[in-house]
Design goal:
Layout (H helix, E strand, L loop, with lengths): L17 E5 L1 H9 L7 H10 L4 E5 L9 H10 L3 E6 L3 H8 L5 E4 L19 H13 L3 E6 L3 H10 L3 E5 L1 H4 L3 H20 L3 E5 L7 H5 L4 E6 L1 H22 L5
Helix pairs in contact: 2-3, 2-10, 6-8
This protein binds 1-deoxy-D-xylulose-5-phosphate and the ligand NCC(=O)COP(=O)(O)O.
Length: 254
């Protein structure tokens, strides 16, 4: 079934949640030595063989991990869906349009940050989004906006014409106890509003074997993007083991 087909535009409640593996941090290890390995494409293929439904990469402007050649290699070799995350910078949107990716996730990017710290400010970026969203859409992939679970941002995301949002789960992942419960509730409300507005909903950032369960049970979510925790776990149990464990933690298999 083509989960990105036009008929699926309003989401497909009967489809199982999908696990998309972000392979950025395989490239982080390689780039630490400016070496040829480990290869994120080989890692992606092992993840696919173990049940990953798609592969995600973030091509950062500073090229700290994924390189342009990685995107091409992944496009040529993986058999599932390729989701390319990039900023709204003109150079990055041009590259994304030429990448042949199945999906694009527009993310905020700050050169000094250790990782993506928050969602896109869709309201402040409305002018650049008005150009980038239709351009990326015409290039053949489905566009998603990486947003915090903020209801005003979600209303603004719906107005851009992008079919998807990806809810930033970083704050949920980085809190505990009552605060985490409150963040989970924000994510639930955000997914509900997005669905009511006709958006399809993904989620990701900071998810791991321990915290993924409650997120995987949020209504209307289609796809979870998980990278750092899964790549780290693969050091101990291999790529296939890490994917299988995550699928169990997501409730996709027993
Ligand atoms: C947007 C996002 O959440 C991912 O890109 C993920 O965080 C991996 O990339 P970085 O660690 O470089 O942010
Ligand atoms: N968009 C989130 C993503 O791709 C993975 O984030 P993380 O699991 O590496 O934090």
């Amino acid at each position: 079934m083509d989960i990105y087909a036009p008929g699926m535009a309003k989401g497909a409640p009967d489809l199982a949640l999908r696990l998309h593996v972000n392979v950025d941090h395989v490239a982080t290890v390689r780039q630490a030595r400016r070496a040829r390995f480990p290869d994120p494409t080989e890692f992606a293929l092992a993840c696919e063989a173990a049940g990953a439904d798609g592969i995600t990469v973030h091509l950062r402007k500073d090229r700290r991990h994924i390189q342009d050649d990685d995107v091409q290699a992944l496009r040529g070799r993986i058999g599932t869906l390729l989701n390319l995350e990039c900023s709204l910078d003109d150079e990055m949107v041009d590259l994304a349009c030429d990448s042949g990716a199945d999906a694009f996730c527009l993310v905020p990017e700050n050169r000094a940050e250790v990782t993506t710290e928050g969602g896109l400010d869709v309201i402040a970026e409305s002018a650049r989004l008005a150009t980038a969203v239709p351009r990326l859409g015409r290039s053949g992939g489905l566009v998603s906006l990486f947003v915090d679970p903020d209801l005003d941002q979600i209303r603004a995301a719906a107005a851009t014409g992008a079919p998807f949002i990806e809810l930033h789960t970083g704050r949920y992942a980085n809190t505990v106890d009552a605060e985490r419960e409150a963040e989970l509730e924000r994510l639930r409300r955000a997914a509900e509003l997005a669905h009511e507005l006709g958006l399809r909903v993904n989620a990701g950032h900071g998810l791991d074997l321990v915290n993924v369960g409650p997120v995987a049970r949020i209504a209307h979510l289609e796809e979870l993007n998980i990278g750092h925790a899964l790549v780290a776990r693969a050091l101990f149990v291999g790529a296939g083991g890490a994917v299988r464990e995550m699928r169990v933690a997501m409730g996709l298999e027993g």
